[in-house]
Amino acid sequence: MIAGLRVGARLAVAAALVLVAYFSITLAQIWLRGREHSSRDAAAILVFGTTEDNGTPSAELTDRLETALALYRAGRAGYVAVTGSRQPGDRYTEAGVSATFLERHGVPADRVIVGGGVDTWQNVESVAPALVRRGLTTVLTVTDPFHEYRAMAIASDLGLTPFPSPVADSPTVHYGLWRYYLKEALEVGVARVVGYQRLSEWTARTPLRG
Fold this sequence. Notes:
Blueprint: H1 2-33, E1 44-47, E2 52-53, E3 56-57, H2 59-73, E4 79-82, H3 94-104, E5 112-114, H4 120-133, E6 138-142, H5 148-157, E7 161-164, H6 177-194, H7 196-203
Parallel strand pairs: 1-4, 1-6, 4-5, 6-7
Antiparallel strand pairs: 2-3
Helix pairs in contact: 1-6, 4-5, 6-7
């Protein structure tokens, strides 16, 4: 009886150590990916949505859009895909606000592909078919550094070839950044086992459109 308990305790400790190692390695991979900035050109720029304020991009979204503008103006890609649906209580979608911002700053409307989605999987899923139909399968993924790994993994799952282009100076760094990295490590670690689509089905709400 006692021997059996000892074996069980050892197995539990071993399993805990494996899990700690697994998520620690995942966290390190996320951290390193967020520091990569590809020099490759691509067919399109993929901008991941985040909050807007009554038709005006938030500081975080503005940073992503300005990064995308810089890439577009440098000739790094010929199209920009924007994502994000409405949050509860919002009048505008994140993608719509992003498209308006880009067009006001000189990107032709026919070069902007507008999607939706309330999480990363839905973001990519909302624009991937339109990108693939146009033959725009290589993308520069523009998002916060802590989000870059998951964004690229999902883009790959949905038939795109992503290259990292994380923002350089996101305002998010002022809001408990370590919590974002831990959240990403947990979600990526789980998604590697169950799949990113399944994780989205478990956690995402229905997007608000319009």
